[in-house]
Design a protein that fits this description.
The structure holds two protein chains of two kinds. Chain A is α+β, with helices and mostly antiparallel strands. Chain A contains 16 helices and eight strands. Chain B is globular and about 50 Å long. The chains are: A alpha+beta, B alpha/beta.
């Protein structure tokens, strides 16, 4: 809290709208701000501008027909959402997945995570007034999109996973292309480090700005890089190992500071960790089927409810499935990470300067369709 | 171990509901409401019995003692299933908060055949893997449950969303306005009898 603000509370305040059409909100998010001069007295995010009721759609179509919806929530890390949904249904219906398919899932999800972090990196620095890094980040991201397009058939809203496996195998050109890309990105990361991370302007905009304490993260259920930037060592891939993540050696970057810089650093470090996972997965990639020998045609999970969480690029994405034993979900709850991460914005931004609050908002890495669902 | 500890702590909430009067009442009203109810009930209880049979062979008596139930994590995705009457939800949240659990989500399920709405709270822990599901059943025509948003601030939005979708009223909530739906929305799309 800012001392100046407390003294001035009795003076006149005014309300302004941020969004719903504002470049800093990265989509149609509106924030109602009660301002005291340049300081925020109260910030209230207003959601729902692109709410599409995915959960109802889950109830009125078969399990398989909901697959394309997954890529349309978090359009920047669509494969994590694919993964969360198929894993939940596989758990409910007891479907086994061949090992090669699990490896392919990990490889593509991690590539998708890097592309998501790269886009966030470019857009975040753009929010802070630096235009150039965006162009570099998009240049790198483009390579990933090409790679993923060759396997999944799409560039953004992937729908690559199927119950029991994946729909397309990778070929040699994908493997060599991915290895080359990793080599390339490893050379680029020191440049990003020198150009952006060590840039004094960036440091001044992020250091000690928008602190989120461990306790605040817990009370709001913040996960992903937001929690890890507040010193919470929580990553679903390690905490609750699913798929074949337990077979890889990788670290979870955790920063204690809780400021915007810490969240920035977590994501930048995660890019390297994802590259490590991909390399190991390519080295160990087993031969074999990419779908069960007996094709999964009819999915009818037993009555009951099931939960499965995955680590998406923005945090823990959970799917709660309630089945009544038919070929449609009785209830499909989608727990999206940025919904919880954004909910702490009101408390965290209190007393901040407006431009600093925008830095805080950027460091939360918001994807609005995923919040509104 | 965290699981045993939280199970014990939550078990204290069941002290005065040993006889499970609510369940008996619910069963009665169901039987009155629907004559085919015994069949439906028998079907529903089958999977539950199977699960518990795998865990504890000794539990031979038909109604299991009320209390938090450990579930098969691999099959279900959560460790502890806590079925509580609505007025005990706040106490459960306080216990979980004391043990540093965080809230993943709150949601509802419309059991229209039973004329009930279920509220499901998902909790998880940052340090040790322990997923706790707290659930409560409400009367579908008068769905009210106390808010836990004063304990878990993150519950604020989850409860607003559940109110949007199911019309469940979280009493004591500071701002139960539509969040994802339009501000003048007077419909609840996830109710099974909702027609667009």
């Amino acid at each position: 809290m800012n001392g100046l603000l407390q003294q001035d509370l009795n003076q006149e305040t005014f309300t302004i709208n941020l969004g719903p059409q504002h470049p800093a909100t990265h989509g149609v998010l509106r924030v109602k701000l009660v301002m005291d001069g340049e300081y925020i007295v109260e910030a209230e995010p207003v959601l729902g501008y692109i709410h599409r009721m995915h959960e109802k759609m889950g109830e009125n179509r078969t399990w398989a027909k909901f697959l394309p919806n997954c890529g349309r929530m978090d359009y920047l890390s669509a494969l994590s959402y694919n993964h969360g949904y198929v894993a939940a249904v596989e758990r409910a219906a007891g479907i086994e997945v061949p090992e090669r398919a699990e490896y392919l899932r990990v490889i593509t999800v991690e590539l998708n995570r890097i592309s998501s972090h790269l886009l966030w990196f470019g857009a975040f620095v753009l929010d802070l007034g630096g235009f150039t890094p965006l162009l570099y980040a998009f240049d790198d991201r483009e390579q990933i999109l090409d790679l993923l397009e060759s396997v999944t058939g799409s560039r953004l809203t992937y729908c690559y996973f199927r119950f029991g496996g994946v729909y397309n195998d990778i070929d040699d050109s994908f493997i060599t292309g991915t290895r080359e890309f990793i080599k390339r990105l490893r050379k680029r990361m020191p440049m990003y480090d020198a150009l952006v991370t060590k840039n004094v302007i960036l440091i001044k905009r992020l250091k000690d700005i928008g602190p989120i304490s461990k306790d605040m993260a817990r009370r709001y259920g913040a996960t992903g890089p937001v929690a890890r930037g507040s010193g919470i060592n929580f990553d679903v891939r390690k905490h609750e190992p699913y798929s074949v993540y337990s077979e890889f050696d990788f670290d979870i970057p955790v920063y204690e500071e809780g400021d915007s810089m810490a969240r920035y650093m977590v994501r930048m470090d995660e890019i390297e960790q994802s590259m490590r996972i991909i390399e190991q997965a390519l080295d160990k990639l087993p031969e074999g089927e990419i779908q069960p020998k007996k094709a999964v045609k009819l999915v009818k999970p037993e009555k009951g409810d099931y939960y499965h969480a995955v680590e998406a690029a923005r945090g823990s994405f959970g799917v709660r499935v309630v089945s009544d034993g038919t070929n449609q979900a009785y209830r499909l709850k989608l727990r999206s990470p940025t919904y919880s991460n954004l909910s702490l914005f009101g408390e965290a931004s209190r007393g901040m300067l407006l431009p600093d609050a925008l830095a805080l908002m950027g460091s939360l890495d918001l994807v609005i369709p995923e919040i509104d669902r | 171990m965290l699981l045993t500890k939280i199970k014990e702590a939550l078990n204290s909430l069941y002290e005065d509901i040993q006889a499970e009067p609510e369940a008996a009442e619910a069963a009665e009203t169901e039987a009155k409401a629907e004559e085919a109810a015994p069949e439906a009930q028998a079907e529903e209880s089958k999977p539950v019995e199977q699960e518990e049979g795998a865990e504890a062979e000794a539990a031979a008596e038909p109604p299991p003692p009320p209390g938090p139930r450990e579930t098969d994590y691999k099959a279900k995705g959560y460790h502890l299933d806590v079925d509580l009457p609505p007025e005990k939800v706040v106490a459960a949240a306080e216990i979980l908060n004391r043990e540093n659990f965080f809230i993943e989500a709150i949601t509802g399920v419309d059991w229209i055949d039973d004329q009930q709405l279920e509220v499901v709270y998902d909790f998880n822990h940052f340090d040790e893997l322990c997923r706790v599901v707290v659930r409560t059943r409400l009367d579908r025509n008068n769905p009210e449950v106390p808010t836990i948003s004063h304990i878990y601030q993150g519950a604020n939005w989850h409860e607003r969303e559940t109110h949007d979708f199911f019309g469940i009223i979280f009493t004591g909530h500071p701002n139960l306005e539509p969040l994802l739906l339009p501000e003048d929305a007077d419909f609840h799309p996830l109710l099974k009898d909702f027609k667009a």
